[in-house]
Design brief:
Oligomer: single chain
Shape: globular
Strand content: 15-25%
Strand order of the largest sheet: 6-3-1-9-10
Order of helices and strands: HEHEEEHEEEEEEH
Helix content: 25-40%
Length: about 180
């Protein structure tokens, strides 16, 4: 139960931190052995300005950014970077392909590897159509997608979501104190 509350709080705090983004997309996804990351990445177009947040238990997983060669061979030595926070935020700032694996023994070869092909944002935009994509809570269920329609101010949508998130944080914190 505490782990679930922790994950919810992390997701809400992450949403709150992007309140000032106007058109970038925030993807919140579990980093686990059940998700097919090749399929997940293929179902999205990642643009400069987007952010990927991988949520996981630090006692079970980590996130290593690696070279293509180390990604292909699941080699964990000499990573570009390592994160063990349980809430890895990947900011996509340049057009490039980036590679991530779990450094725990056997996890990469079991499919815990993610290739992000980042393309340029459309002119005048700092991200994709805008919104928040929260990964499925159970395998096979669809993700939660919060976006705005054309003609609506996506910044206002994100700010409202962040406001609700901050309210929920306050509520959960109050409940935890009780």
């Amino acid at each position: 139960m505490a782990a679930m509350v922790y994950k919810i709080l992390l997701a809400i705090m992450t949403i709150a931190t992007i309140a000032q983004l106007t058109s970038a997309t925030l993807y919140i996804e579990s980093w686990d052995l059940q998700t097919n990351y090749t399929k997940w990445a293929a179902s999205h177009t990642f643009l400069t300005g987007d952010t990927i947040t991988l949520s996981y238990s630090p006692s079970d997983h980590n996130v290593l950014e690696v070279t293509k060669s180390n990604y292909d061979s699941c080699t964990t030595t000499g990573p570009i970077s390592t994160d063990t926070s349980g809430n890895t935020m990947i900011n996509l700032t340049t057009t490039e392909t980036r590679y991530f694996i779990c450094g725990f023994s056997g996890h990469c070869s079991a499919g815990m590897k993610l290739q992000l092909d980042v393309v340029s944002s459309p002119s005048g935009s700092n991200g994709s159509p805008g919104g928040i994509v929260i990964g499925a809570s159970s395998p096979g269920s669809p993700p939660v997608v919060i976006t705005s329609s054309p003609g609506y101010d996506s910044a206002a949508v994100v700010n409202k979501v962040a406001g609700v998130g901050l309210g929920l944080i306050s509520l959960v914190m109050a409940l935890l104190v009780l």
